[in-house]
Amino acid sequence: MIIVPWLIFAGVITGIVILNFIIVRYLTDKEGEKRFRQEAADRFLPTLVVSFALTISMLCLLLVPIDIYSVSSRANLTDDGLAQFQDAILLMYYILYGLIFSFIFALIPYSYFYYEAGDLEAVPTIKKRLFTSFLKTIIFVVFVLLLFVVGLFVREGSPKVNDDYKQYVNSVVYSKNAADSAMILAIALVSMISFIFYIFYAGYGLAAFPLSWIKGTRNYTTEKQELESDLRATKAEKRSLNEKYLSGAKKVSAADKARLRDLESRELTLTDVDNRLTSNRSGILNNCWRATRPFYIVFGVLFAIISLFIIISFILTQLDRLINSPCGIKCGYLLDKPHRWNPIDTGLVLVSRVFPIDYVAMGAIIFYIFFATLGGLMAIGVSVPLYRLAAVQPRATSTQGLLLGAVILMFSLLALNMELMSLAPQYINFGSQTYKEESTGDEVRCDWNAKPDQCHMTQIGKIFSRISLGLPFFGVVYYYATWAFIAIYFLGFVIALLKKRSSNVSEAQQNEMDW
Questions:
Q1: Is 229 exposed, middle or buried (0-12, 13-18, 19+ CB in 10 A)?
Q2: Which residues contact 264 (CB under 8 A, 6 or more apart)?
Q3: Which among 433, 429, 434, 432 has a CA at the least distance from the CA of 464?
Q4: Distance (Å, rounded) from C-alpha 154 to C-alpha 383?
């Protein structure tokens, strides 16, 4: 029934909102909140914005199985009813994409600047903070508005495909609608930017996330001994400097003053980390973690297998696109149909015959990639080449780090929307639909050879196909970006394999100890 998928989607919305709120609270710097009560009040806006921003990004991906359900089962609809259902899904996609753009280019920057303005004495009042934040955010809003204005006047080029496919492509994919063209251009450009983050954070995360479960953390006793030794050495050096000026015969030099300040700060940090290490060791949850350690290894191996299946599926489709695309670089290596077996694609097509099994399977893949990307973000931090802007760690993430991290996750999930076509091309385009070939009478899976009334392409498939056919430059960029993503996965696997086990305290606290 047509109501069933929407009821499931409504339940998913509720679950994702709760999940993302828990994730945000898990990452938030709790000690910072205790020290700065006024700051804690200011954190409410960023927490709310990040929670809903991540929810919108994930919903855009989790709408895909409903899109596929509409064409695979047709939900007992007439042709007109199916067309209305697909139009509603397309409108939902556009609303979600619009909200994603709003969060990335308006709400998150505004929240960031508003929170940052609270630290400036020159902007003490709420009114001034609101105005200053608005002025700094407006440049991002202007960029998006210009993008849509340009899109109104830019039309996709004519599809570069063989005559055999012209009828299907022109009737199903190509459009002259100005508003559609503006949205397609915006999606194409922002998705291209998104691949920069997706390649590094998702690529490394898929490799490192399973290994972090398998390797676990450092030996508690060894780490405790090293920490206590470091603390004793710091206290000894501090005591030595104080004794040097104990008689009061000479004035403390500027260099020794600076050194004493550094030592006092380091002593406080080491003491705090030592207390946290002891607290972590004695907590009930940590005792349960140690007891269930063997299961973490089992799950780590399972996650490694899932990551490998995802990468293999990408590689097989990439090779298929390179060898068998009917129009090659002219259409961003778009496929008329898959020519090579793909494990994830095949599995999803099979289970899509019984909704909502494919929703569960697709949702599991999306959530896995999301958590792997989050793991990559926690490992790499919010970084530019050779410099880390902010750490993203459990219970130790600053508000600025939380907002910037949310932007990275949103960009990565947006790129994943485009990557679904390389992960499971048949499932994403046509689901489980089949048609009878006129020449042989055989029942085959839907492809571009079918007549438009025989096979119905999904809305997400149309969006990707319109980008690749009408704006092939973006399709080519997506194609080679996927190869870069695969390369980062293998490089990240080697790095994660050689990397030492993580500490029993957060990386952010470990960084505070480096001097």
A1: exposed
A2: 238
A3: 429
A4: 35
Q: What is the largest CA-CA distance in the chain?
A: 105
Rounded Cα gap, residues 30 and 35, in angstroms: 9
What the block records as the tokens of 41 is 């009040």
Give the pLDDT confidence score for residue 241 in this predicted structure.
79
Mark out the alpha helices in 381-499 (DSSP H runs).
Answer: 399-423, 425-430, 459-470, 472-498
Tokens 């949103």 -> residue: 410
Cα separation, 358 vs 361, whole angstroms: 5
| Distance of alpha carbon 373 from alpha carbon 464, whole angstroms | 23
For residues 105-115, average pLDDT: 87
* Alpha carbons 16 and 93: distance in angstroms, whole number: 17
Mean pLDDT value of segment 25-42: 60
The model's pLDDT over 424-461, given as tens digits with 9 standing for 90+, comes to 999 999 998 888 887 777 888 988 878 777 888 899 99
Q: What is the DSSP letter of 28?
A: B
CA distance 71 to 77: 10
pLDDT tens, residue by residue, 353-376: 888 899 999 999 999 999 999 999
* 79 Cβ contact list (under 8 Å, min separation 6): 453
Question: How many residues in total does the chain contain?
Answer: 515
Residue 249: which region, alpha, beta or left (left: phi > 0; alpha: psi -120 to 50)?
alpha
CA proximity to 376, closest of 408, 400, 344, 398: 408
φ, ψ of residue 122 in degrees (nearest 5):
-70, -15
Q: What is the pTM of this model?
A: 0.85
Q: How far separated are the first and last CA of the chain, in Å rounded?
A: 63
| Dihedral over Cα of 256, 261, 265, 268: its sign | positive
Q: Is 387 helix (H, G, I), strand (E, B) or coil?
A: strand
Backbone angles phi, psi at 327, to 5 degrees: -130, 0
Exposed (0-12), middle (13-18) or buried (19+): which is 203, by Cβ within 10 Å? buried
Task: Check: CB of residue 274 under 8 Å from CB of residue 231.
Answer: yes
Q: What is the pLDDT of residue 281?
A: 62
What DSSP designation does 384 have? E
Taking the C-alpha atoms of residue 498 and residue 507, their distance in angstroms, rounded to an integer, is 17
| Cα Rg of the chain (Å, integer) | 27
Q: CB of 378 within 8 A of CB of 393?
A: yes
Q: What is the DSSP letter of 340?
A: S
Task: Report pLDDT for 456.
Answer: 86
Q: How many CA atoms lie within 13 A of 417 on its CB side?
A: 34
Pair type for strands 382-384 and 387-390: antiparallel
